[in-house]
Amino acid sequence: MTGSLVEIEIEPGAGGPWRAVCAYHDLLPGRGTAVLVDGRQIALFRDRGGEVYAVGNRDPFSGAHVISRGLLGSRGATPVVVSPMYKQAFDLRTGACLDEPAGPGGEPAALPVWRVRLTPPASGCAGDVAPPNGGAHRPETTPS
């Protein structure tokens, strides 16, 4: 994975397309970073176990784009990011808020999630896919 590129699926759940957003080694374990893709801010995280997650960077409670600066941790077996604003915890796999079901205006309190895969740099092969965020990577086959 050292020389791999991190790619995210641009239209979540729509089967692609995929976009390379950074090199795997650019993501520091236990830290987040924000990337801008087609006008959307996406928070990328690499946990200490090496898994990569992609969620929306906008905190649904404050409206600030700060999720990439949140603290990584877990609630039981659930990997979470804790917002630096009001400290709500969000499941990195689903985007669900574990503390409150709705935001201040009554809208669902969840972060959008993107599927992540790792691919070798400058390669035509599809790489490894983490469905949809986190979990064990599995090889993806390219159509013949």
From TrEMBL:
Please indicate if the UniProt record lists Oxidoreductase as a keyword. yes
In terms of InterPro entries, this protein maps to:
NirD, Rieske-like_NirD, Rieske_2Fe-2S, Rieske_2Fe-2S_sf
Q: Which CDD domains match?
A: Rieske_NirD (cd03529)
Give me any GO biological process, just one.
nitrate assimilation
* Gene3D superfamilies tied to this protein: Rieske [2Fe-2S] iron-sulphur domain
- A Gene Ontology MF term for this entry? monooxygenase activity
Give all residue intervals belonging to the Rieske domain.
19-102
Keywords carried by this UniProt record? 2Fe-2S, Iron, Iron-sulfur, Metal-binding, Nitrate assimilation, Oxidoreductase
TM region positions? none
Tell me the superkingdom of the source: Bacteria
Q: Please verify whether the record's keywords include Iron-sulfur.
A: yes
Q: Where is this region: Disordered?
A: 123-144
Name-wise, this protein is: Nitrite reductase small subunit NirD
What organism is recorded for this protein? Streptomyces triculaminicus
Name of the encoding gene: nirD
